[in-house]
Design brief:
Number of helices: 12
Oligomer: single chain
Structural class: alpha/beta
Radius of gyration: 21 Å
Shape: elongated
Bound molecules: guanosine-5'-diphosphate, magnesium ion
Amino acid sequence: MGLFSKINRGLKKTRDSMSGAINSALYGKNEIDDEFYEDLEEILIMADCGVSTSEEIVSKLKDIVFKKNIHRASDVKKEIKNIVSDLLTGGEEVDMITVPSVILVIGVNGVGKTTSIGKMAALFKSEGKKVILGAADTFRAAAIDQLEIWADRAGVDIVKHKEGADPAAVVFDTISAGIARNCDIIICDTAGRLHNKKNLMEELNKIYRVMDRQLPYADREIFLVLDATTGQNAVNQAKEFMEVAEVTGIILTKLDGTAKGGVVLSIKHDLKVPVKFVGVGEGIDDLRYFDAKEFAEGLFESTEEKQ
Ligand code: GDP
Ligand code: MG
């Protein structure tokens, strides 16, 4: 199956609800009137695009419709799609050039950190890169076991300590092993205990210090994982994390199970953090690099029948 159809399929629920509602709002209209713009704004907000982002989309659309003197419903949709695509574009590249490069994955429990790490490991490996994982979520033994299962599945090495071990020590050993084994990419899992911000901040700072000491010049990404099914809550969660951690990119998971895919716009526009990957299922190949154009396309058009 092509890359295109996976995202497209993953966005089905959001597309059906959002694009379907836009079609209904446009249906039978001879003029693009104020009522339509009001409906559109409401539809976008309902799809979790966020209030200010929705307002901006509508205001941009008004401008374009006026300037280009657009009347046809299909043309309006095309313009909305272009606006969305433009809004989503920028910063989505994943630049992991140094050998090794390090990725730290953070986020609350259950959002899909460990699963996304497994998928990333498989993805990078398929690009010919050598990957090593660090089980720095030492909070529960099950978390370590789960990462090990993913390491096996992806066919990559893993460094682990016992439950309750110091996460920074795991990161230290993982980086050491990564350097010794000539790995290209080191990915570390973490526990998501946001309910104690001070602890989280201290724990992360300790991990950063380890990274600074061992790999001062390495490319480093701090990926925050967000669960798309939680819609605007994911945005609020991100704001809280960004108070304590320097987030360089978002992995947005579970798009396949939700009609709240519009949240991607809110993340990009309100938080000003790029989405780097999207998760569209539980399988090992259900993680994709974020592509703004493809995503915008998927929000408005079903391409499944073309496959
Ligand atoms: P963690 O606590 O953040 O490490 O979350 P996990 O990686 O353990 O994932 C929690 C649950 O979400 C698991 O059941 C995963 O299979 C599921 N999950 C993760 N990513 C996706 C996704 O993109 N789509 C779907 N449908 N489920 C996902
Ligand atoms: Mg986990």
